[in-house]
Amino acid sequence: MRSDNPIMKMTMFTILLSWLLIACSKKEDAPVAPPVPPPDDTPVQYGTPFAQVPAPADAVIYQVNMRAFSQQGNFQGVIARLDSIKALGVNVLYLMPIYPIGSVKAVNSPYCIKDYAAVNSEFGTLADLRALVDGAHNRNMCVILDWVANHTAWDNPWITTHKEWYLQDGGGNVISPPNMGWNDVAQLNFSNVAMRLEMIKAMKSWVYTANVDGFRCDYTDGPPLDFWKQTIDTLRNIKTHKLLLMAEGSRNTNYTVGFDYNFGFGFFGQLKAIYNNNRSALTIDSLNQAEYINASSGQQIIRYISNHDVNGAEGTPLELFGGARGSMAAFTIATCMKSVPMIYNGQEVGMADRIPFPFTSVKIDWTKNPDITAEHKRLIAFRNSSPATRRGQLTPYSNADVCAFTKELSGEKILVIVNLRNTTMNYSVPAAIAGNWKNAFGGTSVNITGQLSLQPYEYRILQNL
């Protein structure tokens, strides 16, 4: 029966309102589920992060070209010689690219990357790479990977799935790096945010999946600086690892974005011109100052007398720097001047044959020239034992034919004098360095004053008494 009683209507309304308020109150008091965090795509860490990564100034770098390094041409071939590499005094092992390479428009270059996340089966498996890293770490050597960020192979899946990640011409066609002649690779578009993030993600993954200790970044002067700043900030945020980051470039601004090293392209070119074009040795001193503009006290130049590029295209150290004696004189400057030295595999046995691109036709004969190997060991052992050599204040005393300088730190002082000519030279000893010293390799006392006669390509390393 319908009721028109206003009191009854008001009572029913009050009851209904109370019920709604109670219901709402219970909902507000109910526990709220926490928000679901975004998925963590960080890989599981393999192994224990290496605790003995050297400070940048203390590094001695060894470049491995896997194809030429051993008869096998793979990771296992490197593992078999880790003790020999360590015996040189090396503490940083730099592996040329280890990733699958492309086959479309390709020339079999290791720098033509088809997949940033995989291991090239030519060299072995991920397990083999891990064994190499473990073996190096067990010998107090860290391992860095070559990283090619500027371009990819034409058959990298990114071209199909993300064409917008690449530079294109007016017709929408992906292009090679402009004005470089590198037709076997496709140029990435660094204006694309998603591409950058995927590239950086791939770099991070190797720190976890293979426990590597850093990267040598190929053609660093190509990609924009803000990309490298983004990359380095991300990598430095991996707090479990101390990473070494090398810029294969010469921009002084590479220091400002956080790289530990620039490559000494200018040093190599000047040194070659001194040997082959009679350029003044004084140019090394002025170049050294220019190379360190924008560098902090810990950042360094990597100096070398050979690498995979110049060895195949220009010549071996024996060809470029006056044979065995001349090349050791050149390497002495690379080892002792304000810098860190890099050895290219085969240099330490005085390898006379070039290792031409794509590095498949020549294998290194490790039995050659044990005397040159011993000289490399002696020179690097001295560097490793001498804080002044690695970190000291440099003062130049060169002339047109002789490179000379002192390095001084905390009471230790060394004097390096190198004749860069293939003829006997008389060096007028400046008053500031005249006096009594000792031979760094034998400890015998040496007095230098007046005119110092130096044999062709002779070098002397002295220490204060």
Automatic annotation (TrEMBL):
CDD domains: AmyAc_arch_bac_AmyA (cd11313). One of its GO terms (biological process) is carbohydrate metabolic process. Residues 63-383 form the Glycosyl hydrolase family 13 catalytic domain. Gene3D superfamilies: Glycosidases (3.20.20.80), Golgi alpha-mannosidase II (2.60.40.1180). SMART domains: Aamy. It holds the Pfam family Alpha-amylase. This is Glycosyl hydrolase family 13 catalytic domain-containing protein.
